[in-house]
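Q: What does the assembly look like in three dimensions?
Context provided by user:
Components: two
Sequences:
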Amino acid sequence: MDQFWKVVVERFGEVVTRTGEHFVLTGLSTLIATSVGIPLGIVAYRTQRLRHVLVAMVNLFQTIPSLAMLAILLVLLGKIGIAPALIALVLYALLPIVRNTVAGLNEISGDVIEAGRGIGMTDGQLLWRVQLPLGLPVIMAGVRTAAVVGVGIATLSAFIGAGGLGQFINRGLATYNTNLVLLGAIPAAMLALLVDGCLSLAEQAAKPTPFTERHKLRYRLKPAFAVLPVVVFVCGMFLGAVGGAKDDARSSSSADVVTIGSKNFTEQLLLGELMAQLIEGHTDLRVERRFNLGGTMICHNALVRGEIDIYSEYTGTALTAILKEPGTTGPEATYDHVARVYKRRYGLIWLEPFGFNNTYTITVRQSQAKKHNWNWISDLVDDAGDLHAGFTSEFMERQDGYPGLKETYGLAFGKISDLESSLMYGALAEGQVDVICGFATDGRIAVYNLLPLEDDKAFFPPYYAAPIIREEVLKKHPEIGSALARIAGRLDDATMQRLNCKVDHDQMDTRSVARAFLGGLQ
Amino acid sequence: MIKIEHVYKSFDGGRSFAVQDISFEIRQGETVVLLGKSGCGKTTTLKMINRLIERTKGVIEVDGRDVSRADPVMLRRSIGYVFQGVGLFPHLTVEKNIGTSLSLLGWSKSRQKERVRELLGLVELEPAKYAKRLPGELSGGEQQRVGVARALAGSPKYLLMDEPFGALDAITRDVLQQQLLEIQRKIQVTVVFVTHDIFEALTVASRIAVLNQGHLEQIGTKQEIMNEPQTDFVREIFARPSSQLRHYKSLL
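A: Here is the predicted structure of the complete assembly.
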């Protein structure tokens, strides 16, 4: 608990910024969804045939899982950041708003509608003076549902670099840090309650006040209720703008900014942070950090499109996952090959490797290995049918992952569960699974008494990590190359494992681990 | 004058007719009651006058103008209408309910306010007490008086009333019927009044039009209808008031 408060105090400024971002994301999407959804609802209400089509359509959006929706939009829009997140949130918000608009209008008694027509209202006057005011409480309830659900879904948009409180949650999950998860989850929950409260008051304000109640305080304050969400929204926007301005201040003249990306696990965050601090320390450039992007393909595409300028990649991953080529011979040959193809095909430059080889390792508990006398991956073949494996989703799909492993070794595990990379080690240590696809440099292998088995058939390609940078950025700022060269070859397997361990096990934050390491170098 | 000539209405594309070949006139300043059982076509006939329902065949003229050539919205603004249900807007105060008709006619806010007071006086509701209330806070009788006030707001020449007092208790109904007669005497509005209640018809009507299964059975003054029924149907439905009248007389 004390530790949690320490984190809160340390990162308070960032919490405010992220909350602001989160609010802007949710508020803006609800606003857009409302201004699209109410007209759609009116159209659906008026035309019976369109109603089914429209309601079916917004229903369909709702059934798409949020992460899948983000992934689809990422592909369609071809960019990371606010835009795909905003569109996803708008699509989700449409259903409650459209449905409640139709319901709110349907609920109005036919007598009242006829009365309006009978005294000579046009369709437009009927809509504005009678139908919308009478349907408003139900419509507002829909907006409220949309906004509250939106606060929750917006946490996921951090996966595609849209910021918000989800960023704390992702980093916390990636680095096994509960305090960070709470740092994102608690303000998100509070935000949801605040939004819910304000909009429920606005919903109240949308109902007419009976004459006999009008003297009561609750009703005298009613106009204020109606204004409250607006005030909160403006404050939230302001907060977001301040946060944005801070980011802008850092990136005031875009020519002097490099954007560094990273995938969403500890080592990547550390490498990103190390590169960022080196560039900040040894050049005049400003650094924008877009860490925690959802995976290899997201980082790669962002780099190709110039949304980020640098991230660190592993030679084996580049070879198999990006270039889709089979594993090759030695580490140097692999590096030379990917570097050559990357430059020609993508205009991306592989800088000098950091030094360590973060290969996949088929990892088991030491105790169990001793019992069964397991040393090599081949030793598992006979027992595999009784073993429960826990692999990351990426490993399950990659050619240099389970499909290839199965083929090469003839391994077929009895049961396989998809696990998040940061949760694998604990699950193995606690005996919930028997085999995992560990990373050679993960500190938890030592901490939890785990044993990486020898890759006796040399199935896994080398995974030497190196910074990749866009050629045009390097040409414009060759000083980046010399800054990053300072840690080239300085991070061997043991060092990287030690740094990872500081984050994963000792719960230190990546910035201070990186700072301490770089300080020790000089 | 409203003239209805050989009017038909079918709701099913001509297979059957809710109103068949009805013709009659409504003269300036009189109250014509359309009387009949439910489903006889009386409300349909009424709504065809201000085109809430479009006629299938025939001609309806208001002041010599064919209504089918008029803009339905403008037509409805020029004719007062009191609804079967209450038909007040539940989200608007009494004042705004009445004012709505006026604002549709383009009246300024201050003129509206003045006129609303006048109208509330006319239907005997104290403005100070009632102007700011919502319809839900009024009794049924009070609501229907506001309904009448709203219909009369723009000083229309014609007032269409669709079973306006049908949902009220007998005592309130009597009071409102008397009030209607008084209002009519004061402002000389021409009324078309739909009801299924023979006593109500006898109370408010100058002339009664008896409808049965979409046909007009007979139209005439109360005396004509009572004393010279032209069809069995008319004779039959007025037999009851006559027998009750004899019964009351025997009690006195």
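Follow-up: The longest strand of chain B covers residues 2-9.
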